[in-house]
Amino acid sequence: MSAETRVALVTGSSSGIGAAIALRLGAEGIRVVVNSARSVEAGEKVAAALPDAVYIRADVSVPVQARELVEASVAHFGRLDLLVNNAGVTRVIPHADLAAVTPEVWREILGLNVLGTWQTTVAAVPHLIASGDGAVINISSVAGRRAVGSSIPYAVSKAAIEHMTVLLAGAVGPHVRVNAVAPGLIATPWTRDSDFFAPIAEKVRQSTPLGRVGLPEDVAEAVIGLANAAYTTGHVLSVDGGAHLI
Ligand SMILES: NC(=O)c1ccc[n+]([C@@H]2O[C@H](COP(=O)([O-])OP(=O)(O)OC[C@H]3O[C@@H](n4cnc5c(N)ncnc54)[C@H](OP(=O)(O)O)[C@@H]3O)[C@@H](O)[C@H]2O)c1
How much is the pLDDT for 147? Predict the structure, then answer.
Protein backbone atom coordinates (compact mmCIF):
# COMPACT_ATOMS: atom_id res chain seq x y z
CA MET A 1 0.00 0.00 0.00
CA SER A 2 1.50 3.34 -0.94
CA ALA A 3 1.76 6.10 1.66
CA GLU A 4 -0.59 8.28 -0.42
CA THR A 5 -3.53 5.99 0.18
CA ARG A 6 -3.19 5.69 3.95
CA VAL A 7 -5.68 7.37 6.28
CA ALA A 8 -5.07 8.36 9.90
CA LEU A 9 -7.52 9.52 12.55
CA VAL A 10 -5.92 11.65 15.29
CA THR A 11 -8.23 12.37 18.22
CA GLY A 12 -7.78 15.74 19.94
CA SER A 13 -5.80 17.21 17.07
CA SER A 14 -6.94 20.85 17.06
CA SER A 15 -4.06 21.79 19.36
CA GLY A 16 -0.71 20.85 20.88
CA ILE A 17 0.64 17.33 20.41
CA GLY A 18 -2.35 16.10 18.36
CA ALA A 19 -2.05 19.00 15.90
CA ALA A 20 1.69 18.35 15.50
CA ILE A 21 0.98 14.65 14.83
CA ALA A 22 -1.70 15.53 12.25
CA LEU A 23 0.64 17.97 10.48
CA ARG A 24 3.52 15.44 10.48
CA LEU A 25 1.32 12.65 9.11
CA GLY A 26 0.08 15.01 6.40
CA ALA A 27 3.68 15.83 5.48
CA GLU A 28 4.21 12.07 4.98
CA GLY A 29 1.43 12.03 2.37
CA ILE A 30 -1.08 10.42 4.72
CA ARG A 31 -4.70 11.61 4.62
CA VAL A 32 -5.81 12.83 8.05
CA VAL A 33 -8.99 13.16 10.09
CA VAL A 34 -8.58 16.05 12.54
CA ASN A 35 -10.81 15.93 15.62
CA SER A 36 -11.74 17.86 18.75
CA ALA A 37 -14.76 18.14 21.02
CA ARG A 38 -15.00 21.93 21.30
CA SER A 39 -12.42 23.94 19.32
CA VAL A 40 -14.02 23.68 15.86
CA GLU A 41 -12.29 26.69 14.29
CA ALA A 42 -8.83 25.57 15.42
CA GLY A 43 -9.51 22.03 14.18
CA GLU A 44 -10.68 23.28 10.79
CA LYS A 45 -7.52 25.40 10.57
CA VAL A 46 -5.29 22.36 11.16
CA ALA A 47 -7.23 20.39 8.52
CA ALA A 48 -6.98 23.29 6.04
CA ALA A 49 -3.19 23.35 6.47
CA LEU A 50 -2.94 19.75 5.25
CA PRO A 51 -2.99 18.51 1.64
CA ASP A 52 -5.92 16.09 2.19
CA ALA A 53 -7.67 16.27 5.52
CA VAL A 54 -11.10 16.68 7.07
CA TYR A 55 -12.16 18.00 10.47
CA ILE A 56 -14.78 16.01 12.37
CA ARG A 57 -16.14 17.25 15.68
CA ALA A 58 -16.78 14.56 18.31
CA ASP A 59 -16.39 14.16 22.05
CA VAL A 60 -14.59 10.83 22.33
CA SER A 61 -15.49 10.51 26.01
CA VAL A 62 -19.07 9.88 24.83
CA PRO A 63 -19.16 6.28 23.55
CA VAL A 64 -21.66 6.91 20.77
CA GLN A 65 -19.66 9.92 19.53
CA ALA A 66 -16.42 7.90 19.58
CA ARG A 67 -18.06 5.27 17.36
CA GLU A 68 -19.59 7.89 15.07
CA LEU A 69 -16.20 9.60 14.69
CA VAL A 70 -14.64 6.40 13.39
CA GLU A 71 -17.59 5.67 11.09
CA ALA A 72 -17.60 9.25 9.74
CA SER A 73 -13.85 9.00 9.08
CA VAL A 74 -14.28 5.79 7.09
CA ALA A 75 -17.33 7.23 5.29
CA HIS A 76 -15.23 10.23 4.22
CA PHE A 77 -12.02 8.52 3.12
CA GLY A 78 -13.20 4.95 2.48
CA ARG A 79 -10.65 3.35 4.80
CA LEU A 80 -8.72 3.69 8.06
CA ASP A 81 -5.11 2.61 8.54
CA LEU A 82 -3.90 4.42 11.66
CA LEU A 83 -5.68 5.53 14.83
CA VAL A 84 -3.84 7.88 17.18
CA ASN A 85 -5.62 8.10 20.55
CA ASN A 86 -4.31 11.48 21.66
CA ALA A 87 -7.31 13.29 23.21
CA GLY A 88 -6.80 13.56 26.93
CA VAL A 89 -7.84 15.53 29.99
CA THR A 90 -6.41 16.21 33.43
CA ARG A 91 -7.01 18.22 36.59
CA VAL A 92 -4.10 19.78 38.46
CA ILE A 93 -4.40 18.38 42.00
CA PRO A 94 -1.45 17.96 44.41
CA HIS A 95 -1.08 14.23 45.07
CA ALA A 96 -1.42 14.68 48.86
CA ASP A 97 -4.79 16.43 48.51
CA LEU A 98 -6.81 13.23 48.52
CA ALA A 99 -10.08 14.98 49.37
CA ALA A 100 -9.96 17.00 46.15
CA VAL A 101 -10.09 13.84 44.06
CA THR A 102 -13.83 13.42 43.92
CA PRO A 103 -15.66 10.62 42.07
CA GLU A 104 -16.51 13.24 39.42
CA VAL A 105 -12.79 13.91 38.84
CA TRP A 106 -12.17 10.16 38.44
CA ARG A 107 -15.11 9.81 36.04
CA GLU A 108 -14.05 12.76 33.90
CA ILE A 109 -10.42 11.69 33.58
CA LEU A 110 -10.97 7.95 33.17
CA GLY A 111 -14.01 8.65 30.94
CA LEU A 112 -11.89 10.33 28.29
CA ASN A 113 -8.38 8.95 28.77
CA VAL A 114 -9.29 5.29 29.30
CA LEU A 115 -12.86 4.69 28.09
CA GLY A 116 -12.53 7.11 25.16
CA THR A 117 -9.34 5.38 24.04
CA TRP A 118 -11.07 2.00 24.37
CA GLN A 119 -14.26 2.99 22.53
CA THR A 120 -12.45 4.60 19.62
CA THR A 121 -10.15 1.61 19.31
CA VAL A 122 -12.96 -0.96 19.41
CA ALA A 123 -14.82 0.95 16.68
CA ALA A 124 -11.65 1.23 14.58
CA VAL A 125 -10.37 -2.35 14.81
CA PRO A 126 -12.55 -3.88 12.03
CA HIS A 127 -11.41 -1.11 9.66
CA LEU A 128 -7.77 -1.46 10.73
CA ILE A 129 -7.96 -5.21 10.04
CA ALA A 130 -9.43 -4.45 6.61
CA SER A 131 -6.51 -2.08 5.97
CA GLY A 132 -4.03 -4.96 6.01
CA ASP A 133 -1.50 -2.58 7.60
CA GLY A 134 -3.50 -1.27 10.56
CA ALA A 135 -2.01 0.34 13.65
CA VAL A 136 -3.09 2.06 16.87
CA ILE A 137 -0.84 4.47 18.72
CA ASN A 138 -1.94 5.62 22.17
CA ILE A 139 -0.57 8.76 23.82
CA SER A 140 0.39 7.98 27.40
CA SER A 141 2.67 10.03 29.68
CA VAL A 142 5.75 9.68 31.86
CA ALA A 143 3.15 9.98 34.66
CA GLY A 144 1.88 6.52 33.74
CA ARG A 145 5.07 4.87 34.95
CA ARG A 146 6.57 7.20 37.60
CA ALA A 147 5.22 8.89 40.75
CA VAL A 148 4.72 12.22 38.97
CA GLY A 149 1.94 13.95 37.05
CA SER A 150 -0.70 16.65 37.36
CA SER A 151 -2.95 14.45 39.51
CA ILE A 152 -3.24 10.86 40.72
CA PRO A 153 -6.28 10.08 38.51
CA TYR A 154 -4.38 11.37 35.46
CA ALA A 155 -1.31 9.23 36.24
CA VAL A 156 -3.53 6.19 36.88
CA SER A 157 -5.35 6.78 33.57
CA LYS A 158 -2.04 6.77 31.71
CA ALA A 159 -0.86 3.59 33.48
CA ALA A 160 -4.16 2.03 32.35
CA ILE A 161 -3.56 3.17 28.76
CA GLU A 162 -0.13 1.52 28.79
CA HIS A 163 -1.46 -1.81 30.02
CA MET A 164 -4.38 -1.56 27.58
CA THR A 165 -1.78 -1.10 24.83
CA VAL A 166 0.02 -4.30 25.83
CA LEU A 167 -3.19 -6.34 26.21
CA LEU A 168 -4.68 -5.10 22.93
CA ALA A 169 -1.47 -5.84 21.06
CA GLY A 170 -1.91 -9.47 22.05
CA ALA A 171 -5.60 -9.44 21.23
CA VAL A 172 -5.65 -7.85 17.76
CA GLY A 173 -2.46 -9.20 16.17
CA PRO A 174 -1.42 -10.26 13.60
CA HIS A 175 -3.56 -7.82 11.60
CA VAL A 176 -3.22 -4.71 13.79
CA ARG A 177 -0.24 -3.39 15.77
CA VAL A 178 -0.84 -1.46 19.02
CA ASN A 179 1.86 0.75 20.52
CA ALA A 180 2.07 3.84 22.72
CA VAL A 181 4.19 6.93 23.17
CA ALA A 182 4.86 8.24 26.68
CA PRO A 183 5.85 11.92 26.52
CA GLY A 184 7.56 13.82 29.32
CA LEU A 185 6.92 17.54 29.76
CA ILE A 186 5.95 18.94 26.35
CA ALA A 187 5.34 22.66 25.75
CA THR A 188 1.70 22.81 24.56
CA PRO A 189 -1.24 25.12 25.38
CA TRP A 190 -2.18 22.57 28.10
CA THR A 191 1.12 22.93 30.00
CA ARG A 192 2.62 26.26 28.87
CA ASP A 193 -0.21 28.34 30.34
CA SER A 194 -0.31 26.60 33.71
CA ASP A 195 1.35 27.70 36.96
CA PHE A 196 3.26 24.42 37.29
CA PHE A 197 5.05 24.76 33.93
CA ALA A 198 7.96 27.08 34.89
CA PRO A 199 9.17 25.15 37.98
CA ILE A 200 8.84 21.73 36.32
CA ALA A 201 10.48 23.00 33.11
CA GLU A 202 13.43 24.22 35.19
CA LYS A 203 13.71 20.82 36.90
CA VAL A 204 13.58 19.10 33.50
CA ARG A 205 16.34 21.36 32.15
CA GLN A 206 18.56 20.71 35.18
CA SER A 207 18.02 17.01 35.84
CA THR A 208 17.12 15.11 32.67
CA PRO A 209 19.78 13.69 30.32
CA LEU A 210 18.70 15.74 27.29
CA GLY A 211 18.30 18.95 29.35
CA ARG A 212 15.30 20.51 27.62
CA VAL A 213 11.51 20.53 27.59
CA GLY A 214 9.98 18.56 24.71
CA LEU A 215 8.19 19.96 21.68
CA PRO A 216 4.97 18.58 20.15
CA GLU A 217 7.09 17.79 17.06
CA ASP A 218 9.28 15.45 19.17
CA VAL A 219 6.19 13.36 19.94
CA ALA A 220 5.02 13.50 16.32
CA GLU A 221 8.37 12.13 15.17
CA ALA A 222 8.04 9.15 17.52
CA VAL A 223 4.50 8.50 16.26
CA ILE A 224 5.81 8.35 12.68
CA GLY A 225 8.52 5.94 13.81
CA LEU A 226 6.03 3.59 15.47
CA ALA A 227 3.59 3.90 12.55
CA ASN A 228 6.34 2.58 10.27
CA ALA A 229 7.76 -0.03 12.67
CA ALA A 230 6.21 -3.10 11.02
CA TYR A 231 7.65 -5.65 13.49
CA THR A 232 6.88 -3.71 16.70
CA THR A 233 3.74 -4.15 18.78
CA GLY A 234 2.87 -3.84 22.48
CA HIS A 235 5.66 -1.29 22.97
CA VAL A 236 5.57 1.97 24.95
CA LEU A 237 8.15 4.44 23.69
CA SER A 238 9.32 7.12 26.13
CA VAL A 239 9.68 10.54 24.49
CA ASP A 240 10.80 12.45 27.54
CA GLY A 241 14.42 13.47 27.11
CA GLY A 242 15.34 10.68 29.53
CA ALA A 243 12.98 11.80 32.35
CA HIS A 244 12.04 8.17 33.02
CA LEU A 245 15.66 7.51 34.05
CA ILE A 246 15.78 9.96 36.98
N1 LIG B 1 1.71 18.41 27.16
C2 LIG B 1 2.37 17.53 27.90
O3 LIG B 1 3.34 17.85 28.63
C4 LIG B 1 1.97 16.10 27.85
C5 LIG B 1 2.81 15.15 28.48
C6 LIG B 1 2.46 13.81 28.44
C7 LIG B 1 1.31 13.41 27.80
N8 LIG B 1 0.50 14.34 27.21
C9 LIG B 1 -0.72 13.85 26.54
O10 LIG B 1 -0.78 14.34 25.22
C11 LIG B 1 -2.14 14.47 24.81
C12 LIG B 1 -2.36 15.86 24.24
O13 LIG B 1 -2.00 16.84 25.20
P14 LIG B 1 -1.67 18.35 24.81
O15 LIG B 1 -0.70 18.84 25.80
O16 LIG B 1 -1.34 18.46 23.35
O17 LIG B 1 -3.07 19.06 25.12
P18 LIG B 1 -3.88 20.25 24.39
O19 LIG B 1 -2.97 21.19 23.69
O20 LIG B 1 -4.79 20.77 25.46
O21 LIG B 1 -4.75 19.46 23.32
C22 LIG B 1 -5.75 18.57 23.70
C23 LIG B 1 -6.59 18.25 22.48
O24 LIG B 1 -7.59 17.28 22.82
C25 LIG B 1 -8.87 17.80 22.46
N26 LIG B 1 -9.88 17.22 23.34
C27 LIG B 1 -10.06 17.44 24.68
N28 LIG B 1 -11.10 16.73 25.11
C29 LIG B 1 -11.58 16.03 24.04
C30 LIG B 1 -12.64 15.11 23.87
N31 LIG B 1 -13.42 14.77 24.90
N32 LIG B 1 -12.87 14.59 22.65
C33 LIG B 1 -12.06 14.93 21.59
N34 LIG B 1 -11.04 15.80 21.69
C35 LIG B 1 -10.80 16.35 22.91
C36 LIG B 1 -8.69 19.29 22.58
O37 LIG B 1 -9.67 20.03 21.89
P38 LIG B 1 -11.05 20.54 22.61
O39 LIG B 1 -10.74 20.80 24.06
O40 LIG B 1 -11.43 21.73 21.84
O41 LIG B 1 -12.01 19.43 22.43
C42 LIG B 1 -7.33 19.46 21.95
O43 LIG B 1 -7.42 19.34 20.54
C44 LIG B 1 -2.98 14.15 26.05
O45 LIG B 1 -3.41 12.79 26.00
C46 LIG B 1 -2.01 14.32 27.20
O47 LIG B 1 -2.34 13.52 28.32
C48 LIG B 1 0.79 15.67 27.22
Answer: 95
Residue nearest to atom 31 of ligand 1 (CA): 59
pLDDT for residue 194? 86
- By the 10 Å C-beta count (0-12 exposed, 13-18 middle, 19+ buried), 99 is classed as exposed
Strands 236-239 and 53-57: unpaired
Q: Is 35 in the pocket of ligand 1 (CB under 6 A)?
A: yes
Length of the chain: 246
CATH 3.10.450.350 fits domain 3-186+216-238: no
Ligand 1: centre distance to CA 208 (Å): 24
Give yes or no for residue 80 having a pLDDT over 50: yes
pLDDT at 1: 41
Q: Please indicate whether residue 22, judged by its CB atom, sits closer than 6 Å to ligand 1.
A: no
- In 3D space, the residue among 162, 133, 157, 174 whose CA is nearest the CA of residue 235 turns out to be 162
Contact 3, 29 (CB under 8 A): yes
Domain residue limits, the chain = 3-186+216-238
First to last CA, the chain: 41
Ligand 1 and 183: CB distance under 6 A: yes
Task: Identify the band that residue 87 occupies on the pLDDT scale cut at 50, 70 and 90.
Answer: very high
At 168-203, the pLDDT tens digits run 999 999 999 999 999 999 999 889 888 889 999 999
**How many Cα neighbours within 13 Å face the side chain of 19?**
20
**C-beta separation of 168 from 209 below 8 A:** no
User: Among residues of the chain, what percentage have pLDDT more than 70?
Assistant: 98
Query: Which residue out of 13, 14, 17 has the highest number of ligand 1 atoms within 8 Å of its CB and is therefore the one to mutate?
Result: 17
